[in-house]
Amino acid sequence: MLKEKILSKLLIPTLIFNLIVISAVYADDQPQWGRRYSRNMVSDETGLPETFDPATGKNIKWVVPLGTNTYSTPVVAGGRVLIGTNNDRPRDPRHKGDRGVFLCLDEKDGSLCWQLVVPKIGGDPRVDWPRAGMVSPATVQGDRVYLVSNRGQVMCLDLNGQTNGNDGPYRDEGRLMAPPGAEPMEVTKTDADVIWLFDIRAETGIHQHDSAHSSILLHGQFLYINTSNGLDTNHEYIFSPDAPSLIVLDKMTGRLVAQEDEKISTRIFHSTWSSPALGRVNGRTLVFFCGGDGVCYAFDALRSAPERSVVQKLKSVWRFDCDPTAPKENIHQYIGNRQESPSNIKSMPVFHKGRMYVTYGGDIWWGKRQSWLKCFDATGTGDVTNSHEIWSYPLNSHCCTTPSVHDGLVFVADCGQVVHCVDAKTGKPYWTHETKGEIWASTLVADGKVYIGTRRGDFWVLAASRNKKIISSIRLDSPIHGTPVAANGVLYIATMKKLYAVKVSGK
Predict the structure, then answer these.
(1) Rounded to the nearest 5 degrees, what angle is found at the Cα of 378, between the Cα atoms of 372 and 382?
(2) Edge-to-edge, what's the strand order for the sheet holding 277-281?
(3) Closest CA relative to residue 272, chosen from 220, 344, 377
(4) Is 162 helix (H, G, I), strand (E, B) or coil?
(5) Span 370-429, pLDDT tens digits
(6) 100: burial class by Cβ within 10 Å (0-12, 13-18, 19+)?
(7) What values do phi and psi take at 274, rounded to 5?
(8) pLDDT at position 15, please?
(9) Strand pairing category for 316-321 and 382-383
């Protein structure tokens, strides 16, 4: 009895301390793009600024220059801020010319901890778009960073970089950084430490289109990854119709353990843009994935890895065609048709209280101008297209943004320069706001506010309420493509050229 009392006195403070530390990490960090698993663009952060001014320093914690083309959304975890960009402003003079760059910055002051620099694929510009840099956001768990590089390589990186040595099994970072045909480069303390690497293009036969654009979903021991499979350079046919659109890797080893078997790639209109989400439906864990064919799919989440020599097929649960009346045959004859075309889905599906919220419509470059925000029931099996739709709301133009669902409202932006607020239950519109700039980024709802940036370079702060209220508008240095991120009391905003850390009373 005495021994048990002594142990309890020792263990209880330790357990309380561990709970506090764990809750702080998971509650305050933002280790992936969107809310954990559901992909909802909502944060629980409070005390965030209503406005800021880079010119005077008002509410500015720090500002860090990036490259000149930044499409990535920042991720914050373990005292680090991670973001992809290009190499137009080299931080290391050894790296010259067009490269994909992934920066790991200190959360306190924005100083460089380490960087991953990867040469471009070269050749066909529509495989690895010139000067686009590294566009895929990271996903972080503990001291492991999971990322898809501009070359379509899934990488597990050490959050500590090379400061604690070159961890294996991968030890060829010098060759990874070097251009084709060049000698391996010296690995320094400010270079990334790659733990393992899986080449999607080489291992699955996909044809990456424009760039690798995937935000990895991590669940249990598995990584769910959009392969970015798409059309040929001239947009005339599907280059790799038999290749998978969604794959699953073991997070510890990078081994391919599963892939979808719905033949999604045979129906791609342009490319596979969307990244997967996850949710619990009637006691069942499902992975939601929007294909390049305009269809939202649900798969059973994996419970265990198959034997080493086996690549498992993901079990399909249901499919929902977001645009069932769109053309389904000879679809590439509609490339460039702004009046009639198939739909595709660039945003991520959002799971919230048993419902799916998805934006879809004509391709932003090659399809019809119409788009919609759709809500449907996440239960059921088989083809639920005709039975599970709850409501559909028309948007102003093309749309590539993921919705924010909060307090009975849905906030979403479109390429027609408009932010929309609609009722989450009925799809009834409450208000719209004209931003005077095209929007590719997603809204972020946090602290009673809606944050959104435009390609014009304006950053808007609106009230997250049924009644429209403009709180502030700030003109920044260049276009904004990434979604704002809130973590540890700080708002992070990436423009094409700079990363702003904004905090109340920041200087």
Answers:
(1) 100
(2) 277-281, 284-290, 295-300, 316-321, 382-383
(3) 344
(4) helix
(5) 999 999 999 999 999 999 999 999 999 999 999 999 999 999 999 999 999 999 999 999
(6) buried
(7) -80, 155
(8) 37
(9) parallel
